[in-house]
Amino acid sequence: SQTIHQWPATLVQPVGSPLSLECTVEGTSNPNLYWYRQAAGRGLQLLFYSVGIGQISSEVPQNLSASRPQDRQFILSSKKLLLSDSGFYLCAWKARAGELFFGEGSRLTVL
Amino acid sequence: AQSVTQLGSHVSVSEGALVLLRCNYSSSVPPYLFWYVQYPNQGLQLLLKYTTGATLVKGINGFEAEFKKSETSFHLTKPSAHMSDAAEYFCAVSDGSNRDDKIIFGKGTRLHILP
């Protein structure tokens, strides 16, 4: 069966520091992968999605970037964090039938 | 482009009462529609989905939703609320033809269950 993992689960970083959140999927090949950010009262904001290795679509201009170095690995990065980058970050993969399966989430606090 | 509107950021119902969470969508192509549930500090879990066929869809935990094309709605219901249903619920839409890989979520509705 397919599984998806994110890490770290929680992260506290100072403003201006770099960020790397990692997501891996097991049990499927060539999945569509997604990064969402969840802020209180704002629902889930789609940040990036990828349909294949090296293929990244960005939905919102921002301080973040994404990369897909391997088929089942999706990384969210920043060179210099801002206070506004705080939030709950969710990685997901898309099944053939169209639904998303989510990781456990990564809570980022920028101080 | 698709969009989703969830009416009511907070809904409170008494234990045993009917649960109704509202979702309206906008899509220029036949949509796929989803409801997800999120418990605190966890990822989202799929409750149910509509792709094609029967418009009344049954999901886990006794929830169901009905796709009404004429009303562009996909409201979530449960006949009798349980304390364990307290969570945040998200409606989502995607392009059913899969030409567009984006899946768009509503802002969510937090369901409170009153004893």
The most extensive interface between chains reads: A-B, 26 and 26 residues
The outline of chain A comes out as globular
Counting helices, strands and paired strands, the structural category of chain B is: mainly beta
What composes the largest sheet of chain A? Answer: 7 strands, mixed
Number of helices of chain A: 0
Order of helices and strands of chain B: EEEEEEEEEEE
Mean pLDDT rating of chain A: 92
The total count of strands of chain B amounts to 11
Task: Give me the secondary-structure topology.
The complex is a heterodimer of chains A (111) and B (115).
Chain A: E1 3-7, E2 10-13, E3 19-26, E4 32-38, E5 44-52, E6 55-58, E7 65-70, E8 73-78, E9 87-94, E10 100-102, E11 106-110
Chain B: E1 3-7, E2 10-14, E3 19-26, E4 31-38, E5 44-50, E6 56-58, E7 64-68, E8 73-78, E9 87-95, E10 103-105, E11 109-114
Parallel strand pairs in B: 2-11
Antiparallel strand pairs in B: 1-3, 3-8, 4-5, 4-9, 6-7, 7-8, 9-10, 9-11
Q: What's the short version?
A:
The complex is a heterodimer of chains A (111) and B (115). By secondary structure, chain A is an all-beta fold.
Please explain how this structure is put together.
The complex is a heterodimer of chains A (111) and B (115). Chain A contains no helices and 11 strands. By secondary structure, chain A is mainly beta. In chain A, strands 2, 4, 5, 6, 9, 10 and 11 form a 7-stranded mixed β-sheet that branches. In chain A, a hairpin with a 5-residue loop joins strand 9 and strand 10 (100-102). The model of chain A has no long low-confidence stretch (mean pLDDT 92). In chain B, the strands form 2 sheets. In chain B, strands 2, 4, 5, 9, 10 and 11 form a 6-stranded mixed β-sheet that branches. In chain B, a hairpin with a 5-residue loop joins strand 4 (31-38) and strand 5. Chain B is globular. The A-B interface holds A 32, 34, 36, 41-44, 46, 49, 51, 57, 59, 88, 90, 92, 94, 97-105, 107 and B 6, 9, 32, 34, 36, 41-46, 49, 51, 90, 92, 94, 96, 98, 101-108.
